[in-house]
């Protein structure tokens, strides 16, 4: 099946975390999938969504709550990782669409946690690292955070930093800016040379 390029799924995950290594017997798990769909043709954010996931091999630490603002009571009605994967596949056709995140952490975390919990990986092989794309397009010699990138291009951050749903929304705004600002003019097919 051909890849759908009408929308890009901008994803940001939050996971259980600690100030230091995990306690014995616990591992970092995804507890929130923030998602923002982007209309590629219009270069606009369409909608955002928060998918909460109840951890099964870890507990929220005080450090994690301070960082993300998420508390145990926020996860009471949350589904499983398998539920989240099912939503991504069924409602967003995630295996067929390009997905993007700020850096590679989200991709690696999904790959690792899905493998450890024997849950099917929800995405296809195409992942766009907007953090690297931003640095390359601006000719930077280092990658920067979402907050610094928003400040640099004059986009106000919305919501709470380190909440997946809000970070996905802000990352999608940066992505829309990049598409708009760095769009190359269309090249007529007859002007493309096929000779070397």
UniProtKB/TrEMBL annotation:
Short name of one Pfam family: RNase_T
InterPro entries per UniProt: 3-5_Exoribonuclease, ERI-1_3'hExo-like, Ribonucl_H, RNaseH-like_sf, RNaseH_sf
Gene3D superfamilies, alphabetized: Ribonuclease H-like superfamily/Ribonuclease H (3.30.420.10)
Gene Ontology MF annotations: 3'-5'-RNA exonuclease activity; nucleic acid binding
Signal peptide start and end residues: none
Keywords for the protein's UniProt record, in alphabetical order: Exonuclease, Hydrolase, Nuclease
Coiled-coil ranges (or none): none
An annotated GO BP: DNA metabolic process
Nuclease keyword on record: yes
Domain Exonuclease positions: 7-184
Transmembrane helix in keyword set: no
Designated name of the protein: Exonuclease RNase T and DNA polymerase III
């Amino acid at each position: 099946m051909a890849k759908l390029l009408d929308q890009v799924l901008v994803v940001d995950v939050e996971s259980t975390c600690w100030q230091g290594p995990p306690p014995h017997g616990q591992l970092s798990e995804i507890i929130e999938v923030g998602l923002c769909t982007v209309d590629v043709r219009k270069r606009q954010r369409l909608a955002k969504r928060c998918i909460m996931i109840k951890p099964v091999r870890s507990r929220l630490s005080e450090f994690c709550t301070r960082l993300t603002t998420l508390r145990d009571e926020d996860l009471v009605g949350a589904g499983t990782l398998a539920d989240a994967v099912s939503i991504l596949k069924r409602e967003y056709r995630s295996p067929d669409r390009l997905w993007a995140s700020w850096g590679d952490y989200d991709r690696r975390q999904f790959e690792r946690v899905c493998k450890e919990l024997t849950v099917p990986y929800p995405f296809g092989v195409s992942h766009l690292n907007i953090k690297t794309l931003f640095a390359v397009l601006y000719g930077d010699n280092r990658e920067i955070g979402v907050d610094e990138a928003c400040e640099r291009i004059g986009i106000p951050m919305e919501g709470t930093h380190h909440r997946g749903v809000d970070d996905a929304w802000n990352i999608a705004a940066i992505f829309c800016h990049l598409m708009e600002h760095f769009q190359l003019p269309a090249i007529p097919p007859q002007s493309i040379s096929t000779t070397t």
